[in-house]
Design goal:
Oligomer: single chain
Largest sheet: 3 strands, antiparallel
Order of helices and strands: HHHEEHE
Structural class: alpha+beta
Number of domains: 2
Mean pLDDT: 77
Helix content: 25-40%
Number of strands: 3
Strand order of the largest sheet: 1-2-3
Strand content: 5-15%
Length: 109
Amino acid sequence: MKEKVLAFLAIKSLEQLEQILIPVGGEKLAARVADWRRLLEGLSAMGLARFVAVDLGVVRGLAYYTAFVFEAFDRKGELRAIAGGGRYNNLVAKLADPICRPLALPLAM
């Protein structure tokens, strides 16, 4: 089991993710992979692909976020994360407006 977890965490591209996950199937899984593809293609279209790395080991409050999470680092990668956040769909809907989809971006100071 340990080896499987470590192999999963070693995935660093969408293509690797698809090779491992697609064979196990499922609509929800296919939808999540499609979400990843849209996100990465959008970032690439904005010229940001060289600044993005897939890291499935990033977790930020598992009970808090509902979709992608991210962390931002300095260009040299010498500091800890200087920013991070993610999607939490339906959080505001639970509190007030049912169609709002907020995104957080806390900065480390």
